[in-house]
Amino acid sequence: MSVVSRTVAAIPVRTSVATWNAVTDLLAPAGSAGRDRLEAVTNIAAILITAEYTRQAPIVVIPASGPRIRIRTAHGPDAPEALAVEIPLAVRPSAETGWTMSLPCGIDDIDEIRTALAGHPGIEARDVTDGITVDEPVESAAAGGWSIDYEEMERP
Amino acid sequence: MNTAVHVNTITYAATHVATNMLSSIRSIIKGSGLDPGRIRESWDILEAGIAIWLASRHLKSVTLEVYDPRKGGDDLVGRFDFTIDYGYYSGGDGDLWLDPETVAYTIRKNGGFPARCEYRIVADTAPGRAEVPGWTTTAYRSTTGFTRHAVGTAIGGGNLGAALAYYIRSGT
Question: What is the pTM of this model?
């Protein structure tokens, strides 16, 4: 699994909503198929950014194909420095359909946020203490997956 | 170069105070047993207005009014004010900071509200403010019979300070 990481400047360089807008711009160009889904969760994501959960653990995007994306936000004195070195993604993974997203969330807010995200399939909140662990579908052999049977290799 | 730094300092302080004021109001809402859905659904409108009016120095205060819709007329049951002081730091070089304990203390002292209570957020602004979509003019609910308790400055940045106070009904 390959991973691409980015850091987006947040408060006080940007408001929480402007920070999410910057994340949205990073992931999906204007007019693309996936952008509406990101814009629809702006207020929810802005609250998570304000609480700095996205500083503690990354937003994780799993595209339909291509590398997984991890996005953190930089706050306080780190934010101006992060703004100066923000780098666009070579391929914007949420431009097309089929991507999923995991947003970090603290335990005090997770019930509220999960309820709010119920109407947004493919976007979920995970406990911020889980770090970067995100569930993803296991590829089956029928889908072309393969594995090494170490027990078989060790048999005489 | 100095001008650019000065502009950034003012903008950053306004953004810091605006967002953390809104976050503190959300903490009061959750800590008082109220439904956080309403502030969440209006977050973009609220943050835009507060940040713009802070940066232009038109914002005087932001108030959380809690009311009981079962009561007719005089329905206020609680109120929390964040009052802006544009000269909190005379030197103008203050750090960006937030004191969550001031907010937590206020929640503890005020106590909770019945779940049926609702709330709204009111910004008091000086004449000449920019119009921000989603905001409308209104008047405060009466605070007759309430006593105002000042807690102290909860958020600071640049020249700005945001002082928190709460109201408790003291008589009829």
Answer: 0.89
